[in-house]
Amino acid sequence: MTLRTLDSLGDLAGTRVVVRCDLNVPLQDGEITDDGRVRASVPTLTRLLDARATVTVISHLGRPDGTPNPKYSLEPVARRLGELLDRPVTFVPGTAADAEPGSGPVTVLENLRFDPRETSKDAGERRAYAEALAAHGTAFVSDGFGVVHREQASVYELAQVLPSAAGLLIAEELSVLERLTERPERPYTVVLGGSKVSDKLGVIDHLLPRVDTLLIGGGMLFTFLAAQGHAVGKSLLEADRIPVVQEYLRRADELGVTLLVPTDVVVAASFAADAAHETVAADAIEGSSFGADGIGLDIGPATADAFAEAIAGSRTVFWNGPMGVFEFPAFANGTKRVAEALTEVQGLSVVGGGDSAAAVRTLGFADDRFGHISTGGGASLEFLEGKRLPGLEVLGWEAGE
What we know:
Blueprint: E1 16-20, E2 27-28, E3 31-32, H1 36-50, E4 54-58, H2 75-85, E5 89-92, E6 106-109, H3 123-134, E7 139-142, H4 153-161, E8 164-166, H5 168-181, E9 188-192, H6 201-207, E10 213-216, H7 221-227, H8 242-255, E11 258-260, E12 264-268, E13 277-281, E14 295-299, H9 301-312, E15 316-320, H10 333-343, E16 348-351, H11 354-362, E17 372-373, H12 377-384, H13 390-393
Parallel strand pairs: 1-4, 1-7, 4-6, 5-6, 7-8, 9-10, 9-15, 10-11, 15-16, 16-17
Antiparallel strand pairs: 2-3, 12-13, 12-14
Helix pairs in contact: 1-2, 3-4, 7-8, 9-10
């Protein structure tokens, strides 16, 4: 079987199509702070509208835990979608299952997760919710890549209730990820950061035999330093993962993979934007001015240069996870240097969604400076771990096609 695409739905003129987007964007005081996922939904919606279909858009936002909460309303997202599409968009408040069908070309229903059945562990409850959602159309297009790793009503069961296909965004995401796993152009470098090494263990395990270089930054770097026998002060540390990390270091050496752990770090007196800080060697964190109370908040400049050099010499690069606390300007240099290096890759550069996508936009990089910015951090990682993705399988996709 192969992934069912929009063409498999035939002539859609005059029909209403339910489209599952991932419009889970960050909001502050009711305003969208990063509309990347909204913009990513536009090509599929435009394709359907140009085919003279009418569209009902469904999505979740945040974690309202099955209860209506104005904080997580999709109304501001619907407004932004109307601006991007340059067409009227009708927002329907209330719970999605009970909503009246919209009369315009595009309707956005309220947050799917206001109903506990969306994420229920009971398949029967999810199926009932999917059947209620199916009343809004005669075909279903799944285009929320950020949720394809979940068995949720609007992702899995709805694709069984209605004739279904993948949208353009999912098709593009899948194409890029398959290039990373099945046929990467070499040298192939993976850059991993973020707070916890436990979040990336599966990716490291699956990719070690497939990559040429692995760069480790972010909070997870301190577990690697501890695995090498270095003291890390009050830096983030998952001590129970040290034996696993030591095994990865051994495997990388055995496989001939270059695994770069930072040689210097920026250490601060506390976790604060204005904290006193200094750069020290990675094996001398507790020798800083802050002693055993020091906390590492970024990779150091020498490490940033080494990472940038490794990235620049690669033909394929996948990056997931900031190198430091990029939200604080004093600790954003490592992340910025990695982002800059990705923009100069003569090949495929992929920003792996989630915090990495937020970081590049926060730091002022335009999306088109990268080969691809994924909309699904968790889904991208699970794909690279080799895990099954129910939301793709239900659309006919099989791993290793």
